[in-house]
Amino acid sequence: MMNYSFDEIIDREGTACVKWDLRKQVFGNADVLPMWVADMDFRTPSFITEAIIKRASHAVYGYTYRTEGYYNSIINWMKRHHGWEIERKSILFSPGVVPVLYMATLAFTEPGDKILIQPPVYPPFHESVVNNNRQLVYNPLMQVGDRFVIDFDDLDKKLPGTKLMILSNPHNPIGRVWTEMELKRIGDLCIKHKVILISDEIHCDLVLPGYKHICTANISPEIAANTITCLASSKTFNTAGLSTSSVVISNPEIRAKLDSVIQSVHVDAGTFFGAIASEAAYNHGDEWHAKLIEYLAENVTLVRTFLADRLPQIKLNTHEATYLLWLDFRALGLSQSQLVDLITNKAMLGLNDGTAFGVEGTGFMRLNVGCPRAMLLDGLTRLEKAIREQ
User: Mind listing the domains of the chain with CATH numbers?
Assistant: First the structure.
């Protein structure tokens, strides 16, 4: 058994790191502790770096392609971890999930067409629609007790006349793992109203103990035939900079239409080391992945306990997946600008402003706990001090 240390503090400054080196540009303050953008402050596992170094040592970096080993690693991982059997022909390449949102918008809609999202949700869901001159349709999530749920009556009313629905599964930033029953209702409603469903499942391998990710397209053949699934190893194995992801589409007509756009904008080549990293992650990452989930679960528990004991006015609702926590500051009674000022300039923390995920995020901030525990404790202590002194 390998020994993995998630407590190691790694200095990322000066590495052209978005999370650390752009603090001044993003927050107006270069000294904040950055706990925002969705990459982790853990060392990328050695089996990935070793695979990259081995290939790099060849010293010729010419044109390359994705081998059958690359595709088999995806197929085997999804079957092993999620019970989903994917056919090789169903897999397309994209440099990331966000490009898929843009390319699917171009492939399946026209300017002015409607696309549905469920705020508060990952900002590029909004941007991919607006930047392509399409209309946003909102099906806001509802808070019931300490968890967020889908308003299915509203969804049924909003889907007619809509061309695409973009689903976050698991949901970012809410942290919900949608159940099979919830996903079946979504899938069936999309079929009923002739709406193509895009299921962003990039966080599927970051589900916490006690919960289980359900692949939307694995629910029924009918739902599979109407679903575009986005996958990547990058969130789980901390390789976002290598720009490699997969699109799984069983329906040959939908697949061909999206592939035509992928080919037309020539983004199917990928980066030289991206496929190597992805294949290594999926082939050798089981043990590391299990240890990561244990550590992240402990970090989430730490935050929940810290808030309950020392900052009870800040709420963390049911959190089922991802290392991104949706913190509820509404009990403080601050405006959003006052809240952002408190977090950024008083607590000296770099968190994501909740309103970046939609107006439904007013009063919320997103906290990244994919970091060593000492760093997380530093952040929580800063937060406590700032709130007590306000």
Answer: 18-45+286-389 (3.90.1150.10), 60-284 (3.40.640.10)
